[in-house]
């Protein structure tokens, strides 16, 4: 076997093996069984058995313990160093405190027992925590500022939670002084400190320590208070008591940034970067303490106090300028990260937990099951079509696409990412791009064969010519994903991460994996010809002839849609964007969420979200029914009539705020706007400005037209997953447009004397079959989801189906005509600003060039 095949196969094998190592196991393992098997020590197995017994005993108590927490409790109380049972997980020898060692090792074992690729709240459910703002603290805030303070608290909670991974939490206001937080796959029995970390106010203060007075030897000086901290030396903990000034020298409001760092001796500290004003204040106080030490003979000390707890009190020997300080303490890596995150996002209003529930998936079970069924049907349909049309090439493409999906999921798992509906949308787009790339390759190979080349030359020529198209299409999509990662929050960020990974894997699989498989088949003689079906080959359609009526018709529809959008106003937005009522019901018989939704939908109540939840530690379930405003009681009446056997009784009703807050909406629009700007710059650089303007106008057209059609069709409302659907359309539209533009650029070089109109028609006819095939394969998948899927799956599929049609239409009738109009139909205008001016094989007179290069029609 040739060396060029060996290294490609080896690279592919290593990447796939790496990804599978993170994907296996696919689901969470039982913690007790996992740690027993990993240790293999009978003594540790006995310890875990004790923890299981303790966990069972605590089930009916006020504080039920998981096996993990029970094991942690036993080990810390009895000073058992768990690391002795795990030779493969050695901790630093300098860390001698048993509790500290266990608090580092046990979370590692817990995390190791869980699947690396986690499911989101919409797929697997999680916990719901309701915080209430301290009414005394809220009363001190002016009435005009209360909503703003509550909104700030919501944004801070979301940022804090997101440090635990791409978790896409739901955070929204309830009533006037409550905040609901929903977290995917979180077990508070294993993470009891998580909620405290989220609601910590984080009041940071730097206070001066009295230079001479000591609680052990003297009375408390005026203006000081006694504070205590724990210091560890050689594994022994000592209590240190100090007199600390009541009034701080400066507070946490001067913190610009905070992050954890490992210091020279292997300990964990938190680095503070102060604002310019804070740096000046810090320099002044440290200078005063340093001079104090020179005067009294006692080194000055500056206490670091967090939430009224003394963290540390380092000595000050000299003036500290530059605005950087350190908080040292007995921190684990996780504790340091939490502290830094809390300091970066301090809560001004104290919060208390008033409710904590386990919640089911926000996507009901029927939606998930129908989504899986629809996906299987869609994948089967796409596979059958690819094989029927491209024969052996279809098998090659499917293997390449399958490996692509495995690699995307594996890389996501290596990031400990959370897979939610927007992330799945990103994978759908990745599959679409991967299929598209393979179709491009196969169509190019067919062209090369029609031009008389042999199999080997056709494959090489096809890949060489398609490289720039695939590269440009994927780089523009990568720019979009980078902006989403930088600016996005929640669903936007999750989609951006998946898309960024998918772009890289698509290029790798299309240009490396597909190529090596085809070359090996031809080189070994296993495949002597490249047979495919032929649909609409060699078309000669005058697309430019229809540009004006098509342009007018589509933009008329866009205008109608925008007008309808404006007229309907907030009525087109679902609960995720506007908030609504939430009725809380008890029941005697459990009814499936799908049946509940069907009954409420038949009553024409608009968007409804039935959700089961149970209080932590109990099996008692409640049903929460979310509706639009002023529809909660009506929904309850409908359910009581439709399901009398359920015995529904309404316990209460809340007004809930939007889960897609103003910040997410603003960042989504900002991300799309900045993405379009970057695309314009990239295409102007790689092609020229006319192409860029055409691509941007076509993308905006597709978004507006899709939204217009969406609102014109009755029964649809915008929900949070629709954000992912719109982003999906942006990616698909760009991909399609770049393919057309790349072919126009190529034809300009190959046909130096043809008019611009003729060039555009030739290019569009050349890629027409490819566009048709790509649209068919993608439509097979999206229509399957639309027909067989339910709930939000159906809405996303419906939106994407519209987007596929508009994307294909716009690449032909919007993007290319805009490019043509921009240059006034004159190819000389294109060549004057083109990155590569065509090189002619012969010299043409000025007159001939002038004649051959003009003009408009």
UniProtKB/TrEMBL annotation:
Annotated compartments: Cell membrane
Note the superkingdom of the native organism.
Answer: Bacteria
**Gene Ontology molecular functions:** protein-transporting ATPase activity
Primary location group: membrane
In the record, biological process GO terms are:
intracellular protein transmembrane transport; protein targeting; protein transport by the Sec complex
Q: Name one GO cellular component term.
A: plasma membrane
Q: Which residues form the Protein export membrane protein SecD/SecF C-terminal domain?
A: 351-515, 652-824
Q: Which UniProt keywords apply?
A: Cell membrane, Membrane, Protein transport, Translocation, Transmembrane, Transmembrane helix, Transport
- Which segments constitute the Protein translocase subunit SecDF P1 domain? 151-210
Lipid bilayer topology? Multi-pass membrane protein
Pfam families for this protein: SecD_1st (PF21760), SecD_SecF_C (PF02355), SecDF_P1_head (PF22599)
SecDF P1 head subdomain domain sequence ranges: 238-344
Q: Where are the transmembrane segments?
A: 6-24, 387-412, 424-445, 466-488, 494-518, 550-567, 668-685, 692-713, 719-741, 762-788, 800-822
Q: PANTHER family, from UniProt?
A: PROTEIN TRANSLOCASE SUBUNIT SECD, PROTEIN-EXPORT MEMBRANE PROTEIN SEC
The UniProt function text for this chain reads: Part of the Sec protein translocase complex. Interacts with the SecYEG preprotein conducting channel. SecDF uses the proton motive force (PMF) to complete protein translocation after the ATP-dependent function of SecA.
Q: How does it assemble?
A: Forms a complex with SecF. Part of the essential Sec protein translocation apparatus which comprises SecA, SecYEG and auxiliary proteins SecDF. Other proteins may also be involved. Forms a complex with SecD. Part of the essential Sec protein translocation apparatus which comprises SecA, SecYEG and auxiliary proteins SecDF. Other proteins may also be involved.
Query: What is the protein name given in its UniProt record?
Result: Multifunctional fusion protein
The organism's taxonomy opens as: Bacteria, Pseudomonadati, Verrucomicrobiota, Opitutia, Puniceicoccales
Gene that encodes it: secD
